[in-house]
Write a structure and sequence with these properties.
The protein is globular. It starts with a helix and ends in a 5-residue tail after the last helix. The protein has a single domain, classed as ACP-like (Non-ribosomal Peptide Synthetase Peptidyl Carrier Protein, Chain A), CATH 1.10.1200. The protein has 75 residues and is mainly alpha-helical. Helix 1 packs across helix 4. The longest helix has 15 residues.
Length: 75
C-alpha cells in the first residue's frame, strides 16, 4: 500500500517512530533538505517522480500517497 511506504520513508527521513496519515510534514520538522531526500526515496523505492511543488501542495502522508497513487506510471 502506498501510504505504508510513504509513512516508512517519512519516519526514516524525519527520524520519527510513528507518523499519522494527517500529520503535516512541516509541523513534524520537515524542511527542504529532508524534502529532497524524500523525493529521491519516492523515486528509488516507489518509482514515483514527485515534483517539489506537489510535495508542498500535499504535506501529509494521506495526501501525498493519494497523489502518488494517481500517477499513471506508479508501480
Amino acid at each position: 500500500m502506498t501510504a505504508d511506504s510513504v509513512r516508512a520513508i517519512w519516519c526514516r527521513e524525519l527520524r520519527r517512530e510513528d507518523i499519522a496519515d494527517d500529520d503535516d510534514f512541516f509541523a513534524l520538522g520537515g524542511q527542504s533538505v529532508i524534502m529532497v531526500r524524500i523525493q529521491g526515496a519516492f523515486l528509488d523505492e516507489l518509482g514515483a517522480e514527485v515534483p517539489m511543488d506537489q510535495m508542498f501542495l500535499h504535506p501529509t502522508v494521506a495526501s501525498i500517497s493519494a497523489y502518488i497513487a494517481s500517477l499513471p506510471l506508479h508501480r
